[in-house]
Design brief:
Layout (H helix, E strand, L loop, with lengths): L3 H17 L10 E7 L4 E6 L3 E2 L4 E3 L6 H7 L10 E10 L7 E5 L2 E12 L2 E8 L8 H11 L3 E11 L8 E2 L2 E3 L15 H21 L5 H27 L3 H11 L4 H6 L9
Parallel strand pairs: 4-11
Antiparallel strand pairs: 1-2, 2-3, 5-8, 5-9, 6-7, 7-8, 10-11
Bound molecules: flavin-adenine dinucleotide.
Length: 277
């Protein structure tokens, strides 16, 4: 996972590009409500600081998909499913040189990781299917770090949508991108590149709609054509993990079979872990 500094630097870089292109960037302002004005047949975005009308809307509000949720409540066609709570810590100590992944009772239906970040520092994290680890996730992560002799410097965390893409990414003139569209690869929890790609596709679909009258649905068609296969494989692998990685013994047995034939590597890369499935 990228460090907090890298994320802030990259976000700042993107923000600068948007400002140079003429965007108006509002900070510290949350969308709280979507009000439908029936007479004008339009939606108004109500935020903590104001009200906005729009021609097109890109929902990039992350895993909780606020636009879909405010409009459609719990309707699963618009909301990413299987939200996995995740905690990570920046640590120092004698960290390994490799990116290590831990499966089994330490992270039931999920995984723990250690990603070395530099001399004696690492990112250690834990993501577990909601409700599958009793107690507080932060305390479990602290225990894990204590056992490995790491000193915790800072904490972070969030939700990762592991249920695959939402069924409907285009809702009128609203296009869902990134986590809001459920584009995380469920077998490895990565979603940054899909967020960037989908944001780009959404912007291009809107331009095509404006300039050539192309349908906005073309966004979803293009996205599924380019990412659909990997997302499907990845979702299937995650579901197999949920079904089979039950206890430490079974998990170890499966890893001993899949490891030597490259199945784990393929699963992390969102390919089929075994050729048949
Ligand atoms: C602990 C953790 C580790 C991860 N590690 C990796 C990794 O190593 N590699 C990888 O590829 N992916 C990783 N991911 C997933 C990755 O972070 C996401 O897939 C990616 O950030 C999705 O980008 P996004 O723009 O769709 O959403 P986000 O990055 O979540 O951005 C959503 C934005 O919307 C804003 N927002 C939310 N609600 C509102 C509202 N009501 N009003 C206004 N603004 C709002 C938020 O403040 C935020 O700025 C990780 C996720 C977690 C939680």
């Amino acid at each position: 996972m990228p460090s907090q500094d890298t994320v802030f630097t990259f976000d700042g870089y993107l923000c600068d590009k948007a400002l140079h292109a003429g965007a108006d960037v509002q900070m510290d302002e949350a969308l709280t409500r979507i009000q439908h004005q029936s007479k004008l047949d339009r939606d108004v975005l109500v935020t903590t600081k104001g009200r906005y009308t729009f021609d097109y809307l890109i929902d990039a509000s992350g895993s909780l998909a606020h636009v879909g949720r405010l409009r459609h409540g719990d309707d699963v066609r618009y909301r990413p499913e299987d939200q996995v709570p995740t905690m990570y810590a920046q640590v120092q100590g004698e960290v390994p040189e490799t990116f290590d992944v831990f499966l089994g009772s330490v992270a039931p239906s999920g995984y723990a990781w250690i990603i070395p970040k530099g001399p004696n520092t690492a990112n250690v994290g834990l993501g577990v299917r909601a409700g599958y680890l009793k107690g507080n996730l932060k305390e479990h992560l602290k225990e894990f770090c204590d056992e490995l002799g790491f000193e915790i410097l800072s904490w972070g965390g969030g939700w990762i949508p592991m249920g695959g893409p939402v069924k409907t990414m285009v809702d009128g003139t609203t296009l869902a991108v990134g986590d809001a569209a459920g584009l995380v690869m469920p077998s490895n929890g990565g979603g940054i590149s899909q967020a960037i790609i989908s944001g780009c596709f959404a912007a291009e679909a809107i331009l095509d709609h404006l300039n050539h009258g192309a349908p906005l649905d073309a966004y979803e068609v293009r996205l599924r054509a380019s990412l659909g296969r990997a997302l499907k494989n990845s979702l299937r692998t995650k579901n197999m993990g949920y079904a089979f990685f039950k206890g430490d013994l079974i998990t170890e047995g499966i890893l001993r079979i899949l490891g030597p034939i490259g199945g784990i590597k393929r699963a992390m890369e969102c390919d089929k872990p075994v050729w048949l499935f």
